[in-house]
Amino acid sequence: MPIQSETELYEPIKQFMEKMGYTVRSEVKHCDVVAIRGDEPMVIIELKKTFNLPLIIQGMDRLQNTDYVYLATEQKLKGPAPYNLHWNDIQRLCKMLGLGLITVKFYKTKKPFVEVLCEPVAYVPRKSAKRASAIMNEFRERSGDYNVGGSSKRKLVTVYREKSLQCATYMKLHGPLTTKQLRELTGNSKVTGLLQKNYYLWFQRVKRGSYGLTAQGEADLLAFAHVAFKPSNAL
Questions:
Q1: Which CATH number fits domain 153-235: 2.102.10.10, 1.10.10.10, 3.40.50.10140, 3.20.20.70?
Q2: Which CATH architecture is the domain 7-118 placed in?
Q3: What is the pLDDT of residues 147-202, one digit of tens each?
Q4: CATH 1.10.10.10 in the chain, residues?
């Protein structure tokens, strides 16, 4: 059963910090938990029963006081992290903000388990040249803007779909075509792989090296009639 209040996090976290030699005080100048060990910089821990945006904002505010700020929340024994995320995604977010993350698991018959998932160390994500290049190529290869930003569960017009639509349009216009004819008409050197993969089930092989349009292809061609493409009549 989920905890009812963030105050339930305090005692397990206090005991955890005290075992590491910290002196712990609660509600110090609007900070949920302050822990100090010798001459080391103070540690601030902000508590919330579930991970959310207000907790992140609190943590960011506390970074004005010390570099050692942790966000603490319950980690349920079953199910995903809050908002159907993964805990490693939440860790990544905390790292990018320079915040630490502590979770507490509560059990029916044994003591709560406290775990530090990440330390409050500044984190700089490594750029992926491969991913950046893929985005740039997708952007440049598209002929127009046929999607609506923020869409989900909708069929998107990608470069792959545009190239498939080109092949389908020529098949609708001329009937079955060879891969050589389609390469010449579309200018797509990878048309053979596209037809063989047949991701959308639009194409069917009529004979070796020659493909025609399926009923699914005809239907989807109408559905994507808004995609601007003017085929050449010349073969």
A1: 1.10.10.10
A2: 3-Layer(aba) Sandwich (3.40)
A3: 888 887 788 999 999 999 999 999 999 999 999 999 999 999 999 999 999 999 99
A4: 153-235
Please state the separation of Cα 168 from the chain's center in Å: 32
Rounded to whole angstroms, how far apart are CA atoms 49 and 102?
12
Which tokens hold the place of 112? 């709560």
Within the chain, which residue ranges are assigned CATH 3.40.1350.60?
Answer: 7-118
107 close to 113: Cβ distance less than 8 angstroms: yes
With 0-12 CB in 10 A as exposed, 13-18 as middle and 19+ as buried, what is 28?
A: middle
Q: Rounded CA gap, 193 and 173, in Å? A: 21
CA distances to 78, 177, 212 from 184, rounded to whole Å, are 56, 11, 16
Sign of the CA dihedral running 167, 168, 173, 174: positive
Structure pTM? 0.67
Residue 169 CA to residue 230 CA, distance in Å, equals 9
- pLDDT tens for 44-81 read 999 999 999 999 999 999 999 999 999 999 999 888 89
